[in-house]
Amino acid sequence: MPLNGYKSLCQEQQAIIVSSEQGRQHRAVNSDRCFVTHYQIDGAVIRTGLRCDYLLINEDKSDAYLIELKGTDIVHAVDQLEATAQTLKLALQNYHIKYRLVHTKARTHALMETKFKKFCQRHRKPGEFLHRENTLEETI
């Protein structure tokens, strides 16, 4: 476990793990009942600087999900996800990092911003970066 000393927010083999904030929600369905850990990053693991909201780890599959729950400023969300990945780089070195962004209705021009498009290009492998409005549900 990469974040020893921090308490996981979920049970080890919890079926559904929810990260939520102000009406936005990431729902991870753990149908295989894998060993998972879930941490609040913002204000708990990382207290200063740019950081995302949550980290969810499927320990059995070595997948680490960085989760940002955001309003409409998706360019800032990308900065937060990248900063968190950099800060936790050593702790997550043995994991496949996946980026998740749940936002309110994104303005079309925000989706066309160069920084957002470049982030999408860098993380274009299937399942590496997903973003949805209001709720993102996926099987982990």
Describe this structure in words.
The chain has 140 residues and is of the alpha/beta class. The protein contains three helices and eight strands, in the order βββββαβααββ. The protein has helices at residues 74-87, 108-111, 114-122; strands at 16-21, 24-29, 36-40, 54-58, 63-70, 96-103, 129-133, 135-139. The strands form two sheets. A five-stranded mixed beta sheet has the order 3-4-5-6-7, covered by helices on one side. A three-stranded mixed beta sheet has the order 1-2-8, with no helix packed on it. The mean pLDDT is 92.
Q: Which value, in Å, is the CA radius of gyration? A: 14 Å
Average predicted confidence as pLDDT: 92
Termini gap: 17 Å
The number of distinct helices, counting runs of at least 4 residues, comes to 3
Low-confidence stretches: none
| Oligomer class | single chain
Helix content: 10-25%
Overall, the morphology is: globular
Strand portion, in percent? 25-35%
By DSSP, the count of extended strands is 8
Broad structural category: alpha/beta
**Largest beta sheet, briefly?**
5 strands, mixed
List keywords for this structure.
140 residues; alpha/beta; 5-stranded mixed β-sheet; 3-stranded mixed β-sheet; globular
Entry summary:
The protein is of the alpha/beta class and 140 residues long. The protein contains three helices and eight strands. The chain starts with 15 loop residues before the first strand and ends with a strand.
Produce the secondary structure layout:
Elements: E1 16-21, E2 24-29, E3 36-40, E4 54-58, E5 63-70, H1 74-87, E6 96-103, H2 108-111, H3 114-122, E7 129-133, E8 135-139
Parallel strand pairs: 2-8, 5-6, 6-7
Antiparallel strand pairs: 1-2, 3-4, 4-5
